[in-house]
Amino acid sequence: MRDEDLQRAAMMLHHRKAGLAQGDPIAAPIVMSSAYHLPQVQAGGHSYTRAGNPTWDEVEAQLTLLEDAPSLAFPSGMAAISAALMACVQGGGRIVLPSDGYYVTRVFADHFLRPLGVDVVFLPAKDYGAADFSGAAVVYIESPTNPALDVIDISAVAARARAAGAKVIVDNTTMTPLLQRPLDMGADLVVAADTKAPAGHGDVLFGHVAGRDAALMARVADWRRMSGAIPSPFDAWLVHRGLETLELRLSRMCASAGEIARRLQGHKALLALRYLGLPDDPDHDLARRQMAGFGFLIGMTFADEARAERFLSRCPMIAQATSFGGVHTSGERRARWGDHVPLGFIRLSVGIEPIEPLWVAISSAMID
Predict the structure, then answer these.
(1) Is the confidence at residue 368, as pLDDT, over 80?
(2) How many C-beta atoms surround the C-beta of residue 271 within 10 A?
(3) What is the CA radius of gyration of the chain?
(4) Are 343 and 305 in contact (CB under 8 A)?
(5) What is the pTM of this model?
(6) Mean pLDDT of 154-172
(7) In whole angstroms, how far apart are CA 186 and each of 59, 131, 170, 172?
(8) Three-state SS for 261?
(9) DSSP per residue over 103-172, as a string?
(10) Rounded to a whole number, what is the largest CA-CA distance in the chain?
């Protein structure tokens, strides 16, 4: 991680200090109230929890420090994604999305935006570099893509999209703001599922939207308030606590993923291996320029579905789960959801286990 990212992480740990009075709790409290004392509407403060909550304020302050931009909390990553899209597109508008990105984003656009008169265009991530964005209202970028780990040149694509008059939304879930900063590369909005590494413990759904355009963020806030897509105070508190250890966990996860990927290179059980930190990965050079680290995700391709599933079931240190970014190493054969990957492809998310026991478990499970 870069020095400025470490500085943000350090500041985040002490973001409450300036506002503390004698005897105040160091840890953020959970405020479980739906309504607030409101004798005068114009006097300010919280009014109703659908519009705001003190515990949200705390986690949004953390996210704002990490993103270096105003941030709004949502009850899931998809709530954040749908809010950003709804804030930017209208009937008759066109949006461009990756055909090989997160499948639920594709389903949302196809099943809900298209019937509202939105022209939905799907492009493979690798085609973004040469795509014509004329007439697009939104260009939606996912980089690296989930699950294939293809990298899009965010700066170049964002510049071309904005020149064409489009808003640029970047899904930064796989990297977090400590490893990649899309707003600094020209994005109008960043969306992320904080369910993953930011919360980190597999016990809460959460998401956020960040952006520096005040009017655009106001539309996102209005969507949250009027749609009721709000997080609970307890969930916000869990994410606040998780974020305090994000830098520590992320450092361990990325270091372990890099080492495991190096050891897996050339393994006879694999047809292909993807990790952006490997010098021979096709997107390594772009990832090195664009990111402050290579992440914790590894793509492993076995010869077929049966071998992939056998590996997952054999390994005692891989949780078979459809999520990633947690303290537990997890893996999933992503083709079962219809993702554009080979049947034997596994998305491996490396956790915080000590590296040697984890490697022994992984390598032993790969022996036929």
Answers:
(1) no
(2) 14
(3) 21
(4) yes
(5) 0.96
(6) 98
(7) 24, 17, 10, 13
(8) helix
(9) HHHHHHIIIIIGGGT-EEEEE-GGGGGG---TT-SEEEEESS-TTT-----HHHHHHHHHHTT-EEEEE-
(10) 71
Q: Which phi and psi angles does 124 have, rounded to 5°?
A: -60, 145
Q: Write out pLDDT tens, residues 78-120.
A: 999 999 999 999 999 999 999 999 999 999 999 999 999 999 9
Percent of the chain with pLDDT over 70: 100
The C-alpha atoms of residue 295 and residue 194 are separated, in whole angstroms, by: 15
CATH architecture, domain 3-243: 3-Layer(aba) Sandwich (3.40)
Q: What distances in angstroms separate CA 123 from CA 64, 228, 238, one per listed residue? A: 31, 31, 36
Residue-range domain boundaries for the chain: 3-243, 246-365
Rounded Cα distance between 208 and 34, Å, is: 21
Measure the N-to-C terminal CA separation of the chain; round to a whole number of Å.
38
298, 269 contact by CB (below 8 A): no
**Which DSSP helix (H) or strand (E) runs through 365?**
helix 355-365
111-147 pLDDT, tens digit each: 999 999 999 999 999 999 999 999 999 999 999 999 9
122 near 98, Cβ under 8 Å? yes
Mean pLDDT for 46-57 is 93
DSSP 8-state code for residue 294 = -
The pairing of strands 189-192 and 167-171 is parallel
Q: What's the one-letter identity of residue 100?
A: D
What CA–CA distance (Å, rounded) separates 185 from 143?
A: 12
Is residue 281's pLDDT more than 90? Answer: yes
CA 287 to chain centre: 16
Q: Helices 54-67 and 233-243: crossing angle, nearest 10°?
A: 30
β partners of residue 35: 48
Q: Which residues fall within 8 angstroms of residue 224, CB to CB, at 6 or more apart?
A: 72, 74, 83, 230
Q: Would you say 366 and 260 are in contact if contact means Cβ atoms under 8 Å apart?
A: no
CATH architecture group of domain 246-365: Alpha-Beta Complex (3.90)
Residue 196 φ/ψ, nearest 5 degrees: -80, -125
Q: How many angstroms separate the Cα of 99 from the Cα of each of 57, 126, 321?
A: 35, 10, 23
**Containing H/E element for 319?**
strand 319-320
**How does pLDDT run across 181-225, given as a tens digit for each residue?**
999 999 999 999 999 999 999 999 999 999 999 999 999 999 999
Structure tokens at 249: 């966990």
